[in-house]
Amino acid sequence: MKDKLVKYFPHILIGFHLIGLFLFIAWPAMIVLTPLNLMLSGFLVFFTETNKKVSIAYLLIFLLGFLVELVGVQTGLLFGNYRYSNILSEGVGGVPLIIGVNWFVIVVSSVSLFINFKFQIWLKVILSGLAAVLMDFIIEPVAIKYEFWIWENNTVPLYNYVCWFVFSAGFSWLYLSFKPAGNRTAFALYFTWLGFFLILNFI
Description:
The protein is mainly alpha-helical. Helix content is 67%, strand content 5%. α3 (34-48) crosses α5 (99-112), α5 (99-112) packs across α6 and α5 (99-112) crosses α7. The radius of gyration is 16 Å and the shape is globular.
């Protein structure tokens, strides 16, 4: 039963994001639905996993991702000087709780691009980290435009991408250490988000 459902998840994601794209363009105020998008994406990616032990990796990435964001917002020592608006919902210490979902979704999606290649784990980790940085690079202009978060001087520092690579690579290693079998929903989500944010970047 689960396998029958999972095969439709990529189609659900694409359809949901096409609707979201239309709403963003026609009614910019619909950005308030962004947390719903993240929750749906996170649920479908998580539900696709076939190895129950991998759920521990999801929880750890959620918690660690939230923690590094908390340190970043409160101290500026990680990523740079930035703050979140209230668009992504309420949180703790100025960091929306949903941002932990954002971390595991991007990490798992990035890993899914390379998991089936016969590479050494260190190469998969590096490539996954780079893929996550690419995604963040494409998301940043949209996030700034719609004020999901606000950077000091409205400028994204290079240090942000350095931190993104370090942590996403580390989280990729964590995820891979649980021996996931591959996540086709996450694979589809990476390209869905790539197209979604690229289109918003050029509108």
